[in-house]
Amino acid sequence: MSDRDLLERTTRAAGAERHATAELLALVGELDARRLYLGEGCSSLFTYCTQVLHFSEHAAYHRIEVARAARRFPIILDLVADGSVTLTTVAMLRPHLTEDNHRVLLREARHKSKREVEHQLAALAPRPDAKTQIRRLPTEREASVPLTAAAGLVNGAETLSCEGVVTPSTGYGPASSKALLAGTPPAPRSSVSPLASDRYLLRVTLSGSAHAKLRRAQELMAHRAPKGDPAVIIEEALALLVTQLEHTKIASVRRPREQSSGPSPSSTGSRHIPASMRRQVWKRDEGRCAFVGARGRCTETGGLEFHHVVPFARGGATSVANISLRCRAHNVYESELAFGSWPGTAREAVFELGSP
Predict the structure, then answer these.
(1) Are 259 and 307 in contact (CB under 8 A)?
(2) Residue 287 and residue 304: Cα distance in Å, rounded?
(3) What secondary structure, in 3-state letters, does the chain show?
(4) Reported confidence tier of residue 168, pLDDT bands at 50, 70, 90
(5) pTM for this structure?
(6) For residue 165, which of 190, 147, 141, 149 has the smallest C-alpha distance?
(7) Taking every pair of C-alpha atoms in the chain, what is the biggest distance, in angstroms?
(8) Ranges 65-69, 111-115, 163-167, 343-347, most confident
(9) Directed axis angle between helix 230-250 and helix 208-220, to 10°?
(10) pLDDT tens digits along 74-84
(11) Of 120, 125, 118, nearest to 107 (Cα)?
């Protein structure tokens, strides 16, 4: 099978799977309406899907949610069949769909990622800002305290109920109680969740040194942020960090120097990319990978590298016209097209930002 045949066959298979999924949703919805699962010895549609159809619990939940939504709004089946929306998207939107708004909400969610749909829902139903809290996680020794003596854990900063569920502010849940009882403190996952169109809830776990820096920043900013709100400190810290990173990676400065009148890198045979050239390339490519494939331009904006379109090793000039932004994957891909496959360690070492 040629590369082109493989790509085309994969596309057809994906389309066939979507159409089969849409048909399955219609069938499950009708089966649910007729309650046929009862005659099969199952007490619920969920039991039927997991024990008879052998779906995973996660797959069963999403298919049931979408099937029931599609019973009310049949347009969902067409959108799933053509790939406009995913099962996860529909399951997230279902509680908000009405006869009046379902077409608009589904249209706005077309081809969106889960994170983008979360933002869409936050704008639709904004939630109030979360209360600022800082809690110390239990150490391994503290986590091994017997359940009966665990109330008032960590000097009263956190509490543990008789079922072993830590208060929501800690980010723990029932599953984490096993880790607590086993003597291993759980590690809450970092997360960013939209609360409204321009408000986000950030939950992270800090090291002891990072927490000390936060406290020090609160002390130093007491005149500007009397309450020591971490959100204010984080926003200012991120502004400084982004400025520093942009200066380091793309030579972004307030007052750029005028371009040197000396010899250009292309005339001297140097692969070094001057700051003024990096700024021009970044602006022209809009801070995004400029690789264009058979189905359009790459959308990656992270981990970008400066790339010689005509390889430097083959006489390619270090000029604005011959330098372009590439994500790591496409930088390596084009290198392999030009020179063949590299050993993994050498390849990783060579393609650094600014060293295409």
Answers:
(1) no
(2) 8
(3) CCHHHHHHHHHHHHHHHHHHHHHHHHHHHHHHHHCCCCCCCCCCHHHHHHHCCCCCHHHHHHHHHHHHHHHHCCHHHHHHHCCCCCHHHHHHHHHHCCCCCHHHHHHHCCCCCHHHHHHHHHHHCCCCCCCCCCCCCCCHHHHCCCHHHCCCCCCCCCCECCCCCECHHHCCCHHHHHHHHCCCCCCCCCEEEEEECCEEEEECCCCHHHHHHHHHHHHHCCCCCCCCCHHHHHHHHHHHHHHHHHHHHHCCCCCCCCCCCCCCHHHHCCCCCCHHHHHHHHHHCCCCCCCEECCEECCCCCCEEEEECCCHHHCCCCCCCCEEEEEHHHHHHHHHHHHCCCCHHHHHHHCECCEC
(4) very low
(5) 0.61
(6) 147
(7) 86
(8) 65-69
(9) 100
(10) 999 999 999 99
(11) 120
Q: Which residues pair with 191 in a beta bridge?
A: 203
Residue appearing with tokens 């009966």 = 148
CA distance 352 to 238: 24
User: By the 8 A CB rule, do 307 and 281 touch?
Assistant: no
Amino acid letter, 270: S
The label of the residue with tokens 């723990």 reads 172
Q: How far is CA 207 from CA 132, 163, 198, 204, 347, in A?
A: 18, 28, 28, 10, 33
- What are the C-alpha distances in Å from 117 to residues 60, 93, 129, 324? 21, 8, 19, 32
Length of the chain equals 356
Mean pLDDT of 14-19: 95
Contacts of 351 (CB under 8 A, 6+ apart): 305, 328, 331, 332, 335
pLDDT band of residue 349 (cuts 50, 70, 90) is very low
Q: What is the pLDDT of residues 265-293, one digit of tens each?
A: 555 567 888 988 999 999 999 999 999 98
Domains of the chain: 8-124 (no CATH), 127-205 (no CATH), 206-247 (no CATH), 269-350 (1.10.30)
Per-residue pLDDT band for 258 (boundaries 50, 70, 90) equals low
Nearest by Cα to 142 from 207, 206, 186, 190: 186
Q: For 126-165, write each residue's pLDDT tens digit.
A: 888 777 777 777 766 655 554 443 333 333 333 332 333 3
